[in-house]
């Protein structure tokens, strides 16, 4: 009797397939009867082609037959053509990888409830050659700035055990056009290049390869010293060069299609060529020479700054511009979207417009280090589009996208990088909505012209529901979420007023004795009794001069500077009159409150979406939206009350009443585990 009761209870009360978010946007229903798929005569059945066939057989649910074709006259560079005639659909490309992207595009249409009409052709060629994820994963399984568990790379088990997650990861990336990945943190451990580790890397590369994904590694510039036993890592030393040559030969023996190296040198304590009186060119070109015979590339990061007197925002330009045109063809300078560090809002980095003779690539941060981590919903396609669409004024209408997609020499590689938000939790990204940013990175690096609204719609329809009553309001939520976060965190060009260390909450007052000035919020906000903001005009740090005209002039003048960058470029008095007639102080208060109001509306929108979302994801996201709304009040109160000490002005009547007292907030220390999902109830 008891056992029957147990069995009945299990079947009645435990859902057979609890929704854990692990399927991401790939939620096609498997066919009961395999779909009709054939290969054209000349097309070889490679491993990649087998994946394409399998995906269609399993998930293409239309009676229309599909023919796959690799042909030299079809689109190249991973591009593809879809063509529907009365006889069926053909998917063609110059490569099997292109065919794979073609079939994922076809399946995407199907999932969104769209279809190809007879006579219709779709042709696509990706915006960048390399659409590359950067994992900041450490060999010990931790992830720098990771908020979704531990690393998916299980180094202890490799190469013996190959986790099935690697193939799921490869498939998810291929489905959105990502074709490369850097497995380890830019703060690289030298042991990543040990033979033991390389064998493990090779085992991962083998799983990723059929999905068209190339494997790259971040390298520590001091590796020849630390693991090579040499007494120097000087790039001009012949023994050092020989060490790298031998190491690279070993890598290519194990991984014949290895992509190359990502290097963070002479930045935040990492070793680099400057340790030996050499330059970034010396370091990058030495590695480029070693990789060139294998067609490998070096992605050399421009994220460099010293604790010097010069404005941190100016330093990447100052260090790299003198070398424009001196880097080897297979070097790409990897530049963060803004001149400081993935802040909620930054103007685009002036290097994009400045470097004319050097291949430059944008680096975006998918993981939300500075944007509420895996708690806040902030859809980043809007932010990335804002950067990519910015006119650099280097030449007529040359945008950041244009400047980075242009080849400086015929053989150069173009690329766009995103710092991954992936970990080993079941839903990959901690928050189910944060999957939208992984998705958006893939889709945008494939096609920088895609509007953010289309990407939001695609994601929501595939991941949650195609019902317009769900898609329309939640898509609006996503599209407004970046502006909301800026408003409740750092409006009007404020930046880097985060709590030290974890970068989750506000700490405009933060002062760590003995700390570098450029690691403290007061360096960035410069609040005093006159006003607030960093003077980067020609009277200040001169950062405006790094932009081409008319931007330099526009940014330099407080009256023409876009208000979203006002306090980025200017130190402005509290009673300065904004374009809407409010004083800066009043406007700041109203903008913070607008951000809070938006998050309250997001909670409502999500509550109204309940009928269209499974209970598990609904509940988990509801908790997060509520926490985001509470955090927004925390941000508002901390910043407004702190700045009020300098402005001496009251909060405008009717704007808001603070929920917290400044002295309580200043005493509050967020413990590192408080901002994981488990600690969501622990607010200041
Ligand atoms: C990988 C910021 C982050 C660091 C990160 C660094 C970088 O400073 O806080 O964690 O280090 O950027 O991009 O190299």
Write the topology of this structure.
Blueprint lengths: L1 H12 L23 E3 L7 H13 L6 E5 L9 E6 L2 E6 L2 H16 L9 E4 L5 E5 L29 H12 L4 E3 L12 H14 L5 E6 L3 H4 L11 H17 L5 E4 L16 H12 L5 E5 L10 H9 L10 E6 L14 H4 L5 E6 L15 H8 L11 H6 L9 E5 L15 H12 L5 H12 L4 H22 L31 H5 L5 E2 L18 H6 L9 H4 L2 E2 L10 H25 L6 H33 L14 H6 L17
Parallel strand pairs: 1-2, 2-4, 6-7, 6-13, 7-8, 8-9, 9-10, 10-11, 11-12, 12-13
Antiparallel strand pairs: 3-4, 3-5, 14-15
Bound molecules: 4-O-methyl-alpha-D-glucopyranuronic acid.
4-O-methyl-alpha-D-glucopyranuronic acid binds next to loops.
What does this structure look like?
The protein is an alpha/beta fold and 684 residues long. The chain is 37% helix and 10% strand. It has 21 helices and 15 strands. An 8-stranded parallel beta barrel has the order 6-7-8-9-10-11-12-13. Strands 1-2-4-3-5 form a 5-stranded mixed beta sheet. α7 crosses α8 and α19 runs antiparallel to α20. The longest helix is centred in the last third of the chain and has 33 residues. It is globular and about 80 Å long.
Concise summary:
The chain has helices spanning 2-13, 47-59, 96-111, 164-175, 195-208, 223-226, 238-254, 280-291, 312-320, 351-354, 381-388, 400-405, 435-446, 452-463, 468-489, 521-525, 551-556, 566-569, 584-608, 615-647, 662-667, and strands at residues 37-39, 66-70, 80-85, 88-93, 121-124, 130-134, 180-182, 214-219, 260-263, 297-301, 331-336, 360-365, 415-419, 531-532, 572-573. The protein is of the alpha/beta class and 684 residues long.
Total number of β-strand segments? 15
What is the terminal separation in angstroms? 51 Å
Q: What fraction of residues sit in β-strands?
A: 5-15%
Please work out how many helical segments DSSP would assign. Answer: 21
> Considering DSSP H and I runs of 4 or more, what fraction of the residues is helical?
25-40%
